[in-house]
Amino acid sequence: SIYKHCKAVYNLQYKKLRKFHMQSCIDLCGKSGSSQTHIKNLFTTLDKYAYDQDIINKCYSANLTTTTTETKKRVLFTKDEIKDIEAHAGQQYYDETLFMLYTGCRVSEMLSVKCENIDLQNRTLTLGVKTAAGKNRIIPIHKKLVPLIETHTGGTYLFDYPRSTKAKHPESALQTSFLTAWCKLFNHNTHDCRHTFRTALDKAGANKVCIDLIMGHQSSDVGERVYTHKTIQELIATIDLLDYSKYWDSWFKCTEN
After folding, report:
1. Strands of the sheet with 137-140, listed across from one edge
2. Are 103 and 127 spatial neighbours (Cβ–Cβ below 8 Å)?
3. Using N-to-C axis directions, what is the helix angle for 79-87 and 244-256, rounded to 10°?
4. Which of 21, 83, 92, 251 would suit a FRET pair with 166, their CA atoms being 20 to 30 Å apart?
5. CB 103 within 8 Å of CB 142
6. CB pairs under 8 A, 24+ apart, for 31-34?
């Protein structure tokens, strides 16, 4: 898919390829900074091979530049917003939002939760659809979520919308309509729930390994990733630290200063 953006140099001998040829492929591709980086990586890989094979004696790809991709802005939920959402528990979109705020789940994960994978007695659920670290992970259920979950356990999925049988990911079409309606209500992105969840747990002093396990992130520390093991009870103790009403005001006060 990246090679197709290099059509301008298809018929050029590689040893005649110069930086301006490569840079023009990047500059004229019309793609995001991420795609431009992939084009640069392609030339870097080709240069390395050509250099090792004595086809070239200089790697022109070393000085290629790409457009900087802006980091998506995440707006954390305030205590008042969360309080308002909790006050509307039992209503569509509010329940889904609360679920994400108290589990740290992605919207696709939230829509994929099956009732058969929920164990309310032991306050756990099993899910994970995106990364190796996130697949089949156990998430502790916050005590505030128990009554909410109980009202949604009558179908196959916890949030049992009609699903497409043709789409690669059945929840994809639903995400679009869900995001549109939800963003109009709160002026947030659904991923803000995930950022709010992690920030709140971190400010509550939760163990970072436990947070990574709950969210399906791979710990950045090799020792923690390989040697640290956490029990389900430790994960439940971690989720119980989450108290937006207790920690949120003090955190916002710190950021303003």
Report:
1. 118-119, 124-127, 137-140
2. no
3. 150
4. 92
5. yes
6. 31/5, 32/67, 32/69, 33/66, 33/67, 33/68, 33/69, 34/69
**Rounded to the nearest 10 degrees, how much is the dihedral formed by the CA atoms of 94, 240, 242, 143?**
10
Phi and psi, residue 242, nearest 5°: -75, 110
Q: How confident is the model at residue 196 (pLDDT cuts 50, 70, 90)?
A: very high
Output the pTM of the full model. 0.65
According to the model, what pLDDT value does residue 87 have?
A: 94
Buried b (16+ CB within 10 A) or exposed e, 4-15: ebbeebeeeeee
Is the pLDDT score of 203 beyond 60? Answer: yes
Neighbour count for residue 1 (Cβ, 10 Å): 6
pLDDT digits (tens, 9 = 90+) for 164-186: 555 555 555 556 666 667 767 77
SS3 for 118?
strand
Task: Say how far residue 196 (Cα) sits from the centre of its chain.
Answer: 13
User: Cβ distance 119 to 127 under 8 Å?
Assistant: no
> What is the 8-class DSSP label of residue 157?
B
Q: Is the dihedral of CA 77, 78, 84, 89 positive or negative?
A: positive
What is the phi-psi region of residue 67: left when phi exceeds 0, alpha when psi lies from -120 to 50, beta otherwise?
Answer: beta
Question: What tokens were used for 252?
Answer: 């916002």
Name the residue with tokens 């001998």: 13
Task: Enter the tokens of residue 49.
Answer: 């091979």
DSSP summary character for residue 29: S
Crossing angle of helices 79-87 and 94-103, rounded to 10°: 130
